[in-house]
């Protein structure tokens, strides 16, 4: 909602100031210019991007305009899930996690946390991380390095849409100039017309430059920054899980393992140490 209101505010402010100085709305908005500039920019984005990147971009744009799922409750559930999994691995053995890891959808632990189960990227990372721990006897630092490498690859994948959108935004003023040049060419073909008509043609040509600059700095530029933040939100839970797994491999207690993961959560949504301790104690009580 904040993003939508902000974009509407930008449009309203620009149009309002223009009309306040005597401008006509019809002179500022030309459908043909909008179709040309936005159409060329979007088609250029499609040409330069993989289908997978475009799909991620669409998902991130939806997440940007919707309510973020990465809340304090989300991370509380994530840490609770990791605590339960680590507790099973320590009380029983690491092999006891096979039934849960191989089929999270039917696991008695995973189904308790539907928000996490619905986050496919995080669930896949958790499953792959525990599979690595179960199937290998690598030292803790090697496992942490492998998980860090996987996160870096996913980070590049999630941040690529914002880079592509930023590139598209930077191209829009140039496309606007292209549209303006086309308008000037058309005007030059009718130099024998009245001065008023020639003036209207030049003004219409300049609208192309305006539309390109508007698309760059007022729309797609801010959107590219916004989905970059969304990409960081998508990666943050993976760092949390990596730290928990690494702490487990160093033979720390389940409580200390999830506390290690807690340190990678943004401060505004991070559960406090006391809140985490209460959650852990509740889980211990419910399991006895």
UniProtKB/TrEMBL annotation:
GO terms for biological process: bacterial-type flagellum-dependent swarming motility; chemotaxis; proton transmembrane transport. PANTHER family: CHEMOTAXIS PROTEIN MOTA (PTHR30433), MOTILITY PROTEIN A (PTHR30433:SF4). InterPro entries: Flag_MotA_CS, Flagellar_motor_stator_MotA, MotA-like, MotA_ExbB_proton_chnl, MotA_N. Signal peptide: none annotated. This is Flagellar motor stator protein MotA. Residues 136-234 form the MotA/TolQ/ExbB proton channel domain. It comes from Vibrio algivorus. Its main location: membrane. Residues 8-90 form the Motility protein A N-terminal domain. The gene is motA. It is a multi-pass membrane protein. It is found in: Cell inner membrane.
């Amino acid at each position: 909602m904040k993003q939508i209101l902000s974009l509407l505010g930008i449009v309203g402010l620009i149009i309002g100031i223009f009309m306040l100085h005597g401008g006509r709305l019809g002179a500022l908005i030309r459908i043909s210019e909008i179709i040309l500039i936005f159409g060329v920019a979007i088609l250029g984005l499609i040409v330069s991007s993989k289908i997978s990147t475009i799909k991620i971009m669409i998902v991130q744009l939806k997440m940007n305009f919707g309510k973020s799922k990465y809340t304090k409750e989300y991370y509380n559930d994530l840490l609770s899930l990791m605590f339960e999994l680590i507790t099973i691995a320590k009380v029983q053995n690491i092999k006891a996690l096979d039934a849960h890891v191989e089929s999270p959808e039917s696991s008695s632990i995973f189904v308790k946390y539907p928000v996490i189960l619905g986050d496919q990227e995080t669930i896949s990372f958790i499953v792959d991380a525990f599979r690595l721990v179960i199937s290998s006897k690598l030292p803790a630092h090697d496992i942490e390095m492998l998980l860090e490498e996987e996160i870096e690859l996913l980070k590049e994948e999630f941040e690529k849409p914002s880079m592509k959108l930023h590139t598209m935004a930077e191209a829009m003023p140039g496309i606007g100039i292209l549209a303006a040049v086309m308008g000037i060419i058309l005007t030059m073909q009718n130099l024998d017309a009245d001065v008023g008509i020639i003036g209207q043609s030049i003004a219409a040509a300049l609208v192309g430059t305006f539309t390109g600059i508007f698309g760059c700095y007022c729309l797609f530029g801010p959107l590219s920054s916004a989905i970059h933040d969304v990409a960081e939100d998508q990666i943050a839970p993976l760092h949390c899980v990596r730290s928990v797994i690494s702490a487990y491999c160093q033979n720390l207690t389940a409580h200390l393992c999830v506390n290690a993961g807690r340190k990678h959560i943004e401060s505004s949504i991070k559960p406090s140490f006391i809140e985490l301790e209460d959650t852990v104690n509740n889980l211990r009580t419910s399991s006895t």
